[in-house]
Amino acid sequence: MNETLTTITTILIVAGVIFAVVSVVYGIFRKFTQMSWFSYQITLVFLLVALLRALPANTSDAARFWLGLVYLIGGTILIVGGGQLLRRAMLRKRMPAHPAWRFLNRFLGAVTALWDYIVIALVLGCTVLSFFQNVYDPVGFGPFFESGIWKNFLGHHALDFLLVALLVLAMRGGWRVGFGRVFIIVLMLALSLGSVALGIYLAVGVPFFADLSRSLGAGMGGAVGVIVGTAIVAFILFLIFFVISCVLGFFMVKLMRLIRYDYFWGTLDACFGAALSLIVSLAVVIGLYVAVAAVSGGVLTQLFEQISSMLGENGQAIGPMGDMIAGLQDIFKGVGVWLESAPLSNAFFHNPIIVVRFV
User: Tens digit of pLDDT for each residue in 77-110?
Assistant: First the structure.
């Protein structure tokens, strides 16, 4: 083991022990009933997803993908949803004030805080180390990658641990925010963008506002004056529509707060919010995997070659860009190998939803 790696390892161990002690102290004062359970939920869902590794070697990519989705979505819904409902029930019920319970409450708080820290450290550390192993190792962790715990377990599940953690946290966030609030956020974003588009359209396409734009820019003369005048009118119209959207959003937020205070409607809103957040997160993950597959499969190179052939002799002037694109594609090939290093991640990378595969 080289000196640089030894120094880094020592620093990480010392920092890890300090943060572990701080976490335990925090958990003692915070108490179990007030702690988040995300680390337990991530662990349970991950153990369920890890069963993918036990599938026979001849299992098809499609079967691995759909089983992975069933394990992930089903496990996340049962474990995270059940945990949130249990927490609500616990918080609604007064816990006994017996000294034994108070001691147990603080002890479990310390254990939970320590496990929270361990899970976060494992997710971040294993992700970075897995990237070093499969894409680029700037330090030289080769000896560690040959160790039994890495070769037999951590190295095979690093990315799956990250995926499970992200999706569990996304679902928890959707549960907390709720479907109504997520809908309001999306609606406000759409209304804001629509206000910009509508302001520009009115300033250009409606005769009254177009004449007003030309009048405001007449003093500057020429095309610059028309552009400036149009921009001023479009901005004023945008502000008007934006203020109307904000007023609408204000009343919708008030309505959502009333819904969230009701136990039944609040629970239903939370469930739909968690489902929406989980679906969007899965779509983003799979979309990123498809993008990596496309780039590593040569889409950038093909596109560059088409542009160069269209430019003809002038394409020689952008020759250095071809080298840059080739280097970028090599990097994405390494990322593709990285994404194939864990069972669930590999199933997502070779998903059957996208019919066109890039080879």
Answer: 788 777 767 776 766 666 566 677 778 888 888 8
Which residues, other chains included, contact 123 with Cβ-Cβ below 8 Å and sequence gap of 6+? 42, 161, 162, 165
In a domain, 182, yes or no: no
Q: In the 8-state DSSP scheme, what is residue 341? A: S
Tell me which residue range forms the domain holding 323. 3-177+262-349
Residues 60 and 175: beta-carbon distance below 8 Å: no
Q: Please give the Cα distance from 309 to 301 (Å, whole number).
A: 12
In a domain, 183, yes or no: no
Claim to verify: residue 141 and residue 96 sit in the same structural domain:
yes
- Cα–Cα distance, 76 to 166 (Å, whole number): 11
Total of domains in the chain:
2
Backbone Cα Rg of the chain:
27
Give the number of other CB atoms < 10 A from CB of residue 227: 13
Give yes or no: residues 79 and 11 share one domain. yes
CA dihedral of residues 289, 290, 292, 296 (deg, nearest 10): 140
Same domain, 56 and 36: yes
**Look-up of token digits 């799956």:** 160
pTM of the model: 0.67
